[in-house]
Amino acid sequence: MRILNRTILLLTCLWLMFTSAQADEVREHITIRGIYGGVPTELLARGPLRDVGVNAVFMGSGGLTEERIATLKKENARVYAEFNTMHVAGYLKDHPDARPIGTDGEVCPAPHNWQGVCPTHPGYRRSRMDAFRDVLARFEIDGIWLDYHHSHASWERDVPAMPDTCFCPRCIRQFQQAAKVELPKLPTAQLARQLLGPHQDAWVQWRCDVFTDWVREFRDIIDTTRPGALLGTFHCPWSEDEYDGALRNKLAIDLRAQAKYVDVFSIMPYHARFGHATDPAWISRQTTWLGEHLGIRGEPNERLRIWPIVQLSDWGEQVPVDQVRAVLDHGTRRPATGVMVFNWGSLKKQTDKVAAMGDYYRTIRP
């Protein structure tokens, strides 16, 4: 028994040494050490961004200015914009026909106040594409990330709300044309039961194809407006098996199809927010799944890249300062080749976490 206990103790010590060494190593595969949430003026007031190991800043496209970009470029930091695709709720005030329709044939209430838009509404799509093109034409950014590019649902929480939509006449008509399916003339509620029943596979694939086609058009705009800029996407961190296949069945996200057009997948494994507050290793488990799903290894010169956005600020469950290192450790394991922290707006007030982030970023910097 004493020999067994010593063996267990030795193995435990070796494991702790291994995990500690993993967290302390230089990670040459990590090319991006970012902050999400705007220009970190508080850090700049203290000195160069390189002093905290930061080399990239992500901000909303509405917050871009030439002055802010110039400030960050002087720091040799890359600038990436975030672009809202399916969550411009204000559009619905003047275009009520763009509201998603639920299985009962009525306008679907916004789950947790998350208001989506019908993905086949031509005017809405055109307005988003015009805005996307304008951002790229006006600002010298290094890339642009799609955000909220999913169906009418609220999934950024431990208990998601994902109603089935959109069953408007326009969506049903386009589905029939694309899938070569002829549906009987029935009330919307009855048609919805058929689309979620015998026609479910074709319906789910069509919905995914609609959202993927948006991505295709975004790619075309980048290639003609600002060639060389990266197209990224912030997206749900689940595997295709979780929540009964909700990634495709509910959110209409087909990662493999979108990979034809996207350069960087920024999975959003907010461990504390999503019910894994004591398990930062959930972050690397999700990025591992994504890498296997898309064939991304985290090696140099791969076309596709994974740069997760990890949670350091408190949102729902708190992230303690002594967890910062573990969160960033798991966020920077291959197949990831970049990482960014969420989010500067609230994190800047937690100086102990900012210091811990800087310590880690400097440690892994080549």
Task: Identify the notable features of this structure and list them briefly.
366 residues, TIM Barrel, 9-stranded parallel beta sheet, single chain, disordered N terminus
Helix/strand class = alpha/beta
**Number of beta-strand segments:** 9
So what's the CATH class? Alpha Beta
Apparent shape:
globular
For the record, the CATH architecture stands as Alpha-Beta Barrel
In which order are the strands of the major sheet placed?
7-6-5-4-3-2-1-9-8
Average pLDDT value?
94
Query: How far from one another are the termini?
Result: 46 Å
Number of individual domains: 1
What is the count of helical runs? 13
Low-confidence stretches: 1-5, 7-22
Rg from Cα: 22 Å
Helical content stands at 40-55%
Helices and strands, in order, run as: HEHEHEHEHHHEHHEHEEHEHH
CATH topology: TIM Barrel
Largest sheet: 9 strands, parallel
Q: CATH superfamily, called what?
A: Glycosidases
